Amino acid sequence: MLLPDQTGPQSTWALTNLSAIYTRLLPIQNEPDGTLYAELHGPNFVVVTKSFNHLRLWILDPQKVDSGIVQSEMSLENPLWLVDPYTQAAMLGLAWVPEPKRIYCAGLGAGRVPMIVHHYLPHVIIDCTEIDPAVVEMATRFFGLRLDERLRVHMADGRRWLETAEPYDFLFVDVFLDRGYVPYRLSTVEFYELCRRKLTPGGVLVVNLLTEDDYLTSRVVTLQQVFAEVWICALDEGNTLLFAVNEPPGRTPLKHEALIQRTTALQEKQHFAFPLATRALTLTQDASKPGLDLTDAQPFYDDNPPDGYFDLLPSFENLLVPVDPSLPCPCGSGRIYAECHGAQNTAA
Fold first, then answer.
1. Integer CA distances (angstroms), 278 to 88, 143, 263, 264, in order
2. Spatial contact of 109 and 137, defined as CB atoms under 8 Å apart
3. pLDDT (tens digit, 9 = 90+) per residue, 180-218?
4. Residue 258 to residues 76, 203, 281, 283: CA-CA distances in angstroms?
5. 253-303: per-residue pLDDT in tens?
6. Percent of the chain having pLDDT more than 70?
7. Euclidean distance between CA atoms 234 and 294, whole angstroms
8. How far apart are CA 192 and CA 223, in angstroms?
9. What's the whole-model pTM score?
10. Which of 78, 179, 272, 280 could crosslink 263 through cysteines, CB 3.0-4.6 Å?
């Protein structure tokens, strides 16, 4: 397997780190195929399955028959390969900031993007926020993620954490519950204004969304309300990623050809174990190319959620496993559970 800069100063790091990843994954490789973990955590079933050397993390709503979105996937044979196409596409943010110093990820999942960034860019600091301790446990227990001084996970609401954080070069927002629910507070003009303030000049915000999201066009125009330069990457596999660039005054935005050239150069330099340059081919600033009609789409604001937005939330009534009242509410409101759905259940 090719490793980043094998003849350069990263060679020892790359070899040592990859060996450590395989060592952590060895017990999982020796497990038989099937369900490795399945337990209720608050309103969700957290499930890890193994099939033909592939691990999958599921966050399921036990009360909904249409529940069943895979949150994360890993190849145990090649852990540096990003199996999910959307995670490959998320790395396109490096086209705008090839050498980031600080990266922020809202939503951990199995930690696939943080692990890859940590491996290929050994000088970057990565801060992640996650509201479910069980998700962090799955990432470290089954998916080989190891936290250290460069890769940190904070049990905190993604927006509240960002409000007090130092600026980042690269923001990645990948926050879902099952059935495609995205916390409203991570979808509004006010949130994206916060993201812009917390981006360094020339920095990039990457947002992962579901193509079948009923509110996809509103999410696009919301981002366009805040950022002058927004790129769209629609994937056949069902994800649409948005890239918003914090261009400093006076700098000419990159054209599509330049982005392809940059990702090709990154691929050649880093020897990524996935086709980064190929993902750049579908980048576009024209929303009509992936079939999006923005004509009647309205942006989201904090104080005006559309009717029906919260219908996809899981039920918090009659929970068999209680939620820690001091943790952020799983609904994504930004309040702790005791002051949000926990208080509503107590009142009921």
1. 10, 26, 8, 8
2. no
3. 789 999 999 999 999 999 999 999 999 999 999 999 999
4. 34, 16, 11, 11
5. 999 999 999 999 999 999 999 999 999 999 999 999 999 999 999 999 999
6. 95
7. 15
8. 7
9. 0.94
10. 280
Q: How far apart are CA 339 and CA 96, in angstroms?
A: 40
Q: Which residues contact 6 (CB under 8 A, 6 or more apart)?
A: 14
Q: Quickly tell me which residue has 């955590």 as its tokens.
A: 41
- For residue 14, which of 109, 165, 118, 108 has the smallest C-alpha distance? 118
Sequence-ordered list of residues with C-beta below 8 angstroms from that of 346, at least 6 positions apart, any chain: none
Three-class secondary structure of residue 38 per DSSP: strand
CA distance 183 to 168: 22
Burial class from Cβ neighbours inside 10 Å (0-12, 13-18, 19+) for residue 166 reads exposed
Max CA-CA distance within the chain?
Answer: 64
Residue 334 three-state SS: coil
Tokens at 91, concatenated: 């790395």
C-alpha dist (Å) from residue 317 to 110, 262, 322, 347? 27, 50, 10, 11
Tokens of 92: 């396109």
Answer whether 62's CB lies under 8 Å from 315's CB: no
Is residue 199 packed enough to be buried (19+ CB in 10 Å), middle (13-18) or exposed (0-12)? buried
- The C-alpha atoms of residue 49 and residue 56 are separated, in whole angstroms, by 5
Strand partners, 207: 173, 242
Measure the CA–CA gap between 2 and 226, rounded to whole angstroms.
Answer: 40
CATH of the structural domain 79-282, one choice from 3.90.550.10, 3.90.1570.10, 3.40.525.10, 3.40.50.150: 3.40.50.150
DSSP H/E element including 22: helix 11-29
Return the domain boundaries, the chain.
Answer: 79-282
Determine which helix (DSSP H) or strand (DSSP E) holds 326, and give its type and residue range.
none
CA dist., res. 330 & res. 336, Å (int) = 9
Please give the distance of CA 161 from its chain centroid, rounded to a whole number.
Answer: 16
Question: For residues 328 and 156, is the Cβ–Cβ distance under 8 A?
Answer: yes
